[in-house]
Recover the amino acids of this structure.
């Protein structure tokens, strides 16, 4: 009879913990997918397919105990930490999320996020309207299109990029003025 090899790093508790985490993740994923579909149906939207996805990223400081491999420096925001990439649908529900080092460009983070979730676009029926992906001026649609077509050549038959309108100087000033009035009102 051969001796049973027992790894010093694997015990019943860690196996149980791993299985619980996997179950927890998939159970929550199923619950959120189901709830998301129900809410979309209530507001007369198709349960699975959206027509608009808004995408942006945010560089944030990381905790002091985070590993060096997970952190980077974002020169644009002068932040040492991570960058959160978030895609929301027309109702504001999170659609895709992805975390990278802060030093990763917005374009590369978006490409990574969409390539991780490429099955969503592959399974989208071609006869439905294209999904408009609304992005700000920190992204470069031509670069995104080229990179995504290398991953999935038919993707541009299912999505289209649209740059959001830049607010004019007058609009920015009006918004700042409104914020100042609200701030003063809250102080009184």
């Amino acid at each position: 009879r051969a001796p049973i090899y027992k790894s010093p790093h694997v015990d019943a508790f860690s196996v149980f913990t791993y299985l619980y985490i996997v179950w927890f993740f998939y159970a929550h994923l199923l619950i959120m997918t189901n709830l998301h579909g129900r809410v979309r149906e209530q507001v007369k939207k198709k349960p699975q397919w959206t027509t608009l996805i808004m995408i942006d990223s945010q560089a944030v400081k990381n905790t002091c105990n985070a590993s060096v491999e997970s952190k980077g420096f974002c020169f644009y925001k002068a932040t040492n930490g991570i960058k959160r990439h978030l895609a929301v649908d027309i109702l504001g529900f999170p659609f895709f999320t992805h975390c990278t080092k802060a030093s990763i460009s917005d374009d590369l983070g978006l490409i990574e996020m969409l390539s991780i979730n490429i099955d969503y676009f592959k399974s989208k029926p071609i006869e439905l309207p294209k999904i408009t992906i609304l992005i700000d001026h920190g992204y470069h649609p031509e670069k995104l299109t080229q990179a995504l077509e290398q991953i999935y050549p038919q993707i541009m038959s299912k999505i289209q990029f649209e740059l959001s309108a830049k607010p004019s100087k007058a609009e920015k000033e009006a918004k700042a003025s409104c914020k100042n009035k609200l701030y003063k009102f809250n102080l009184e």
User: Anything to note?
Assistant: The CA atoms of residues 181 and 187 lie 10 Å apart. The helical segments are 12-42, 106-116, 118-123, 141-151, 169-187.
